[in-house]
Amino acid sequence: MTLTILAALVPIALLIALGAALRRGAFLAPAFWPQAERLAYYVLLPSLLVHGLATARLDGVPVLELAAVLVLSTACVALVLVAARPLLRLDGAAFTSVFQGGIRFNNYVGVSAAAGLYGAQGVALAAVANAAIVPTVNVLCVLIFARYGTAERARPGPILRQIALNPLVLGSLGGIVLQTAHVTLPPGIEPALRALGQASLPLGLLCVGAALDFGTARAWIWPVAAASLFKFGLMPVATVLACLALGLNGPAAVTALLFQTLPTASSAYIMARQLGGDAPLMAGITATQTVMAAALLPLVMISLGALTGLG
């Protein structure tokens, strides 16, 4: 398990490092990075979500039980995060980054690790995990940006409009609708969406690396620690409790625990940049959690799995 997870994490860390090197070496014009972030947010990431969710194969997967565990654990941790905000003593923009760092996940690592652990069954389980928590996480994050990303309390109308028009939410829902309706993507459209989605990972991670500002690293320590405590501590515990409560076990339970212990994805940084959050802090959380996950993810998976017998 450890080697499988490490194999999925290493290229992510390398791409983040390359993005930092490209930015500091001025290899690309500074104006490139904001445009790359916009392209990833409005085109590449939605394509990834539509294609991944629409083409998933779900035969023999406990869809409802797995989805319920993931949505329940995510919602519980999100509520605890919001309740704990006064104790964190962070401004609104910084809190949006900690919130994303506490609940958002890197689905590339999840799919790769699940496939390495369980083969075709793992890919199907990962597809259900994505279908359940991608829209859940994106709706929750849009709500948090609408409430805490600005100085004034947002009105219900703008919040609902922001959710309805969010490209990541639309991409998630579009893929789920196509999957539910058993609609096959046309031959010309399917490879185009797949290619666009595949481009989202390297470009997003390069942008994360480019945004890293090590001059402000000391200011990251507390927010990074807080986000990581929720991500690698509370979230897996909440997931195990949800599995026990709903009777989910075996490979499906292991996959649920895997996805809920993953480090934050590059999409968190892209969303922070586009919706007015603390993007440099979000880049720091993303990079730090990616490195931490190499040690913590296998440790959490093995220890909690052994204690509860979910695997």
TrEMBL record:
<feature type="transmembrane region" description="Helical">
    <location>
        <begin position="39"/>
        <end position="56"/>
    </location>
</feature>
<protein>
    <recommendedName>
        <fullName>Auxin Efflux Carrier</fullName>
    </recommendedName>
</protein>
<comment type="similarity">
    <text>Belongs to the auxin efflux carrier (TC 2.A.69) family.</text>
</comment>
<keyword id="KW-1133">Transmembrane helix</keyword>
<dbReference type="Pfam" id="PF03547">
    <property type="entry name" value="Mem_trans"/>
</dbReference>
<keyword id="KW-1003">Cell membrane</keyword>
<dbReference type="InterPro" id="IPR038770">
    <property type="entry name" value="Na+/solute_symporter_sf"/>
</dbReference>
<feature type="transmembrane region" description="Helical">
    <location>
        <begin position="201"/>
        <end position="221"/>
    </location>
</feature>
<keyword id="KW-0472">Membrane</keyword>
<dbReference type="InterPro" id="IPR004776">
    <property type="entry name" value="Mem_transp_PIN-like"/>
</dbReference>
<feature type="transmembrane region" description="Helical">
    <location>
        <begin position="279"/>
        <end position="307"/>
    </location>
</feature>
<feature type="transmembrane region" description="Helical">
    <location>
        <begin position="63"/>
        <end position="84"/>
    </location>
</feature>
<dbReference type="GO" id="GO:0055085">
    <property type="term" value="P:transmembrane transport"/>
</dbReference>
<feature type="transmembrane region" description="Helical">
    <location>
        <begin position="233"/>
        <end position="259"/>
    </location>
</feature>
<feature type="transmembrane region" description="Helical">
    <location>
        <begin position="123"/>
        <end position="146"/>
    </location>
</feature>
<dbReference type="GO" id="GO:0005886">
    <property type="term" value="C:plasma membrane"/>
</dbReference>
<keyword id="KW-0812">Transmembrane</keyword>
<keyword id="KW-0813">Transport</keyword>
